[in-house]
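Researcher: For the record, we're logging two predictions in this thread. I'll number them. Prediction 1 follows.
Model: Prediction 1, sequence and structure:
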Amino acid sequence: MEVKKEKKGRELIVVWFSCGAASAVAAKLTVDKYGETHNILIVNNPIKEEDPDNIRFKNDVVKWIGKEIIEAKNKDYPNASIVEIFEKRKYMSGIAGAPCTMLLKKEARYQFELTHKIDWHVLGFTVNEMHRHERFVKGERANTIPVLIDAGYTKTMCFDELVLAGIKLPAMYDNYANANCPGCVKATSPSYWNTVRRVHPEVFESRAEQSYRFGVKLVRYKGKRIFLRDLPKNAKGGKIQTYECGIFCDNY
């Protein structure tokens, strides 16, 4: 694998890689299109509680795009643990969003920006997510290149691109709509949480115990918020949505 050094005088593009399919393809397109004219960094905000297979996927993507993926962490949370943040904040999710997103994704990016003069940002917004791109440009950073949108990529096309490249999708996609941490505290669907209970029972028990101690009712069942420990095992309601976790994360 050839790793090119940064050249002076070139603009810097940072691709924010989330270990998801869309951001992987966005990284590949960016390197292919701008690699000869710009300095490019692929940056990941690691999370301790992510599925271990995300690391395998990241390593496969490194080989595919021919560039290392570096990490950006919040210096105040070097362990990058969402459980640790929940304990320290005694807060998991609510109207103000999720502290894990703010501290381990957004704040980590803000700190990275203090030491890197970023001319352009690239995120994994697909054509299905034009509204999210527009919201990010308006509320966060206007200097964003929508590489996937410009190329007409949907999420399905991103999946297909990786399959054609011989890269297996992260194991999280086998049961969820994304490669985020299992047991995402922004999710409220009974279907989602019962999937977590079935596929990641230890995570479900951890979220149920912690949220009960904090008085946080994470799941919505029959129109009411309830504790995870009170969720019937056969409860369904609301399809499992894509709770994208990153610097562009929506709050659900």
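Researcher: Logged. Prediction 2.
Model: Prediction 2, sequence and structure:
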Amino acid sequence: MTSRTPPTAPPLLEFDNVTVYRGDKKVLDSLSVTIREGENVAILGPNGAGKSSFIKTITREYNPVVAVDGFTFRMRGREVWDVFELRSFLGVVSNDLQYTFMRELPGREVILSGFFSSIGLFNHPVTAKMEDKADRIVSFLEIDHLQEKPMTEMSSEKPGVF
């Protein structure tokens, strides 16, 4: 891992002793991890290892249980966030979008809607800075050919596909 952020800055993400249950099943067990801003991190493991549960805990789709020893769950040094402020620092893309997405929107609009944590732009104002960032994402991922393709026609299982 490489980091461009001074070590004195608070971590982007700090989990300490985080446990999550889904029903009666423990999906994360006393997880502790620290990720600094600028680090590149890969989350690897077999099916059922907790990769998706970890991501859903970061996005607060899943919530940690209070442990006897307590737990820490901080983003950029804070435990409480206005979700819209937090979303300006964090973006998460997962296959879950493919399972819930039923609208005929082109790939580029789906990329841009990520700035607003929505599926579709609706009446959100897209700035030139957002357009530029979308262009860089498209270029980096080499998915120019998918910008006008409807999301409902895309596969999430083929390499190189959005």
